[in-house]
Amino acid sequence: MAKIIPAHSALEEAAAALAAGQLVAIPTETVYGLAADATNGEAVARIFEAKGRPRFNPLIAHVDRFPLAERIAIFDPLSRRLAEHFWPGPLTLVLPLAEGSPVHPLVTAGLDTVAVRMPRGIAQSLIARLGRPLAAPSANSSGKVSGTTAQAVEADLGARIGLIVDAGRTPVGLESTILKVEDGRPVLLRPGGVTVEEIEAFLGMPVERFSGTGIQAPGMLSSHYAPAAAVRLDAREVREGEALLAFGPTRVAGAARAVAMLNLSEAGDLREAAANLFSHIQALDREGARAIAVEPVPRHGLGEAINDRLARAAAPRNDPPGSD
């Protein structure tokens, strides 16, 4: 069982554990991350072992300031503009590795690029205290639902890690948006906590969706975020033995027969829905339903990221396990 300590008194103990090569589950504004010193190969290997994560799936290197980011990666002008505007915050940039980058090759999964993000809060303070970047994928068993509370992390990983920093429920509730600039064009690799519309409004240019193959960043495996129950998307009715993940004020046919029901947002607010997504899926999964029927969620704004996570939760589970 992991030790849980409140964030306001966790800095010294958590930083000491990270410096010693241990794993620490930490809150960010997106989800809880399973953090290790990104320059320490043995520490990073412990992340893959604790999560059961395949080593071909790269990790995000988290930084607290630009000088550290510039030691890790090479910024083109457009990526620099994005970082200066959206950092700290839920935007990850995939960038070429800098010469002599201190990030261990396990973090990049052997790629010549590295995913970099600057988080807020205790995560940023821990990186500053450590003086080194943190690798911190979501604090969950690979392929399972990401944790948005310390208690969810403890229930999943508590037997495999020693320390969890508790700052309550994470405010965004979805992992970061991942973007890569190719030939001066922004390309979306994974939707997340910063919407495409926000990025396009800032840049004054369209964001392209990635259409290639292969894993270029975390969170690109087709099957992720999966509960034990099957997930059925865009449901127009509830079938016998199903739980219901609802959205908005109006219910689909047969809602009364649902084994259990939770609403992502009664008001139809996508930001509230994003914050509730993973915790509601976990709660419905505990009800023992054979499947979770999901009412349609709009695809604009944060709805793109919500639908991305739902589609990966519903995907056939024949990929190797892996989650952000």
UniProtKB/TrEMBL annotation:
Residues reported in the UniProt entry to bind ATP: R53, N57, T113, S138, S146, R190, Y225
Top-level taxon of the source organism: Bacteria
Keyword field contains tRNA processing: yes
Major place of residence: cytoplasm
Enzyme Commission number(s) of this protein: 2.7.7.87
Gene Ontology MF annotations: ATP binding; double-stranded RNA binding; L-threonylcarbamoyladenylate synthase; tRNA binding
Keyword Chaperone (UniProt): no
Chemical reaction(s) catalysed: L-threonine + hydrogencarbonate + ATP = L-threonylcarbamoyladenylate + diphosphate + H2O
Matching InterPro entries: DHBP_synth_RibB-like_a/b_dom, Sua5-like_dom, Sua5/YwlC_C, Sua5_C, T(6)A37_SUA5, TC-AMP_synthase_SUA5
A GO CC term assigned to this protein in UniProt: cytoplasm
Record SUPFAM superfamilies: YrdC/RibB (SSF55821)
Localization annotation: Cytoplasm
Keywords for the protein's UniProt record, in alphabetical order: ATP-binding, Cytoplasm, Nucleotide-binding, Nucleotidyltransferase, Transferase, tRNA processing
UniProt domain YrdC-like: residue ranges: 8-194
Residues bound to L-threonine: T30, H62, R117, A136, S176
Any one of the GO BP annotations: regulation of translational fidelity
UniProt family annotation: Belongs to the SUA5 family.
Biological function: Required for the formation of a threonylcarbamoyl group on adenosine at position 37 (t(6)A37) in tRNAs that read codons beginning with adenine.
Protein name (record): Threonylcarbamoyl-AMP synthase
Taxonomic placement: Bacteria, Pseudomonadati, Pseudomonadota, Alphaproteobacteria, Hyphomicrobiales
